[in-house]
Design goal:
Rossmann fold; 16 helices; 55% helix; elongated; alpha/beta; single chain
């Protein structure tokens, strides 16, 4: 149920907060005070249409927020769901569910399962044929348990249809797909990839790229240590040998120089050898780079690593084999589909028979309610039409049709012109479906248009009945409905700073009696108050009887 509704800058409503309760909530008050604006605000909050002309004069935006208590709902937080919609004069919309931004369509879909508004609004699932089957099936109840078995077969049917469509379209498409798979397979196959090949090539490339630089520096070192350098040292040794006999001090020097001479000869030979062995192979470098380019191209197309590419290759092989053997596989699927269709047809026929029987029963019950609502010539006909194609719920199409006057043709429920007729028709339907209808909040606008007396009392009783299992909001000008309410609210307007503003007040029992008296006679006096007391007492008695 809606626990709190906050409205800001809608028409003559500057800012309004309403605390609502369970059961039947009736809004009464002065003409033009803003009662309909409250219903309009709930319609807007439910994803309904909004005209920027509805924004209060002098303001740039309107804001509506509701706290809805549904503890069983998957989106509830501590049992509550916070819905808000902010609309700016430039057309900008901000819709939120529990603080999360959603589109207007998402908001509409979400709220369609929570609130139904019946009146001069377009937010009515009962006027939409696509919901009628669900209403009928809800009315039927456990008799349609076989629908679960049907849906199991239907899911299998859809799965087979998907396979046939996706994998085995027309021959041209199949050939195009097969050609592509074969091309990819051959491309990978011809590359002859090996595990660890990429790492090996990268190491070789590093060596080859640096080989030229290594060879150049070895050559330079070799040239520096050439024969001229070694010969120079040899000359120095011979010179020292000539004087070492003359002076013993030079003997050690000569020995050290000889050792250096021999080491230098060995180093020179090593450098020369390495120089000869280090060759820059341009051809090998080009091969490695070409190979690495091939690997990188395949990685870009088929996988992040060589291992993934090879795995994809095996997948391609399997898919190619499967497609090349499609005929056998397709025939198997078609046979399976035929068997499932037999089961679907059998169960769909059983469902159709049940729906036809119960549609007549539902029509009769609704028509009885309409007579009590002073729509004596109105007749509802719940049509069940068998279709060729399967759907999730069988092969039936369900639509509510109505004949509002004798001699006229039946027409779709949505073609009812009068707001009062719409509301009363919906009330009659909702009365019958009250126990099975899962929408928790129902709002009726203009429900008392053109009725009085016995019909008015009947409307009040039916609203009270529905309100046992739903939160009901109703704008009314009838004392019967106001007297039947669980909660009464008075809407008024006042002028502040030369601006009209809407106010709302929840009435206590004494104020309720005064409001019933005002509605019934146009003024509050002893006679109207006595009538209000009697009416209030009578409606309470009627409610107590219906509860037992």
């Amino acid at each position: 149920m809606i626990t709190t509704l906050h409205i800001k800058n809608i028409g003559i409503i500057e800012e309004l907060t309403i605390d609502l309760n369970k059961g039947l909530n009736v809004l009464t008050g002065e003409t033009g005070a803003g009662k309909t604006l409250i219903i309009d605000s709930l319609s807007i909050l439910s994803g309904g249409r909004f005209s920027k002309e509805m924004i209060r004069k002098g303001e740039n935006n309107s804001y509506i927020e509701a706290c809805i208590y549904i503890p069983t709902h998957q989106n509830s937080i501590d049992g509550n769901i916070i819905i808000s919609r902010e609309i700016h004069s430039n057309g900008r919309n901000l819709c939120k569910i529990n603080g999360r931004l959603v589109t207007v369509n998402e908001l509409r879909d979400f709220m369609s399962k929570i609130i139904e508004i019946h009146g001069q609004n377009d937010n009515q699932t009962l006027l939409d044929n696509k919901f009628h089957l669900n209403y009928l099936d809800g009315f039927i109840g456990e008799k349609l348990n076989i629908k679960k078995e049907y849906q199991e077969y239907y899911n299998k049917y859809l799965e087979i249809e998907k396979k046939l469509k996706e994998n085995y379209g027309d021959n041209k498409e199949r050939e195009r797909k097969l050609d592509l798979l074969k091309y990819q397979y051959e491309e990978i196959k011809q590359a002859k990839l090996r595990q660890g090949e990429e790492e090996e090539l990268e190491d070789k490339k590093k060596i080859i790229v640096n080989a030229e630089k290594i060879a150049e520096n070895l050559k330079e070192a070799d040239n520096a240590l050439g024969e001229s350098a070694i010969d120079a040292i040899s000359i120095a040794i011979r010179s020292l040998e000539k004087i070492e006999e003359l002076d013993q001090r030079y003997k050690e020097t000569t020995s050290n120089l000889k050792n250096s001479y021999y080491e230098l000869q060995e180093i020179a030979r090593e450098i020369a050898s390495n120089r000869d062995e280090t060759n820059f192979n341009e051809e090998e470098r080009d091969y490695i780079e070409e190979r690495l380019d091939t690997i990188h191209d395949l990685k870009r197309k088929y996988g992040n690593t060589i291992n993934e590419i090879l795995e994809y290759k095996e997948e391609l092989k399997s898919e190619i084999k499967r497609i090349e053997n499609l005929e056998e596989y397709t025939n198997k699927l078609k046979d399976e589909k035929k068997n499932i269709e037999k089961e679907l047809d059998k169960i769909a026929n059983m469902i159709h028979i049940i729906r036809m029987e119960e549609a007549e029963n539902l029509s009769n019950k609704i028509n009885k309610e309409l007579k009590e609502l002073e729509m004596k010539n109105a007749k509802i006909h719940v049509r069940v039409t068998k279709q060729e194609q399967y759907n999730r719920n069988g092969k039936d199409e369900v639509a509510f049709y109505i004949q509002t006057n004798l001699g006229e043709d039946e027409k779709e429920l949505s073609k009812i012109a009068s707001g009062g007729e719409i509301s009363r028709t919906m009330l009659g339907i909702k009365k019958v479906l009250a126990d099975t209808d899962e929408v928790p909040i129902l709002i009726f606008d203009e429900i008392d248009t053109g009725i009085s007396g016995k019909a008015a009392n009947s409307v009040a009783q039916k609203l009270a009945h529905i309100a046992k299992k739903h939160q009901v909001l109703c704008i009314s000008h009838l004392p019967n409905i106001a007297a039947m309410a669980d909660n009464n609210y008075f809407i008024s307007k006042n002028i502040v700073n030369e601006r009209t503003n809407t106010n709302i007040k929840k009435l206590d029992e004494n104020e309720i009696l005064q409001e019933i008296a005002r509605i019934s006679s146009g003024e509050i006096n002893e006679i109207s108050l006595k009538y209000a007391e009697e009416l209030r007492k009578r409606t309470k008695t009627e409610k107590n009887k219906s509860e037992h």
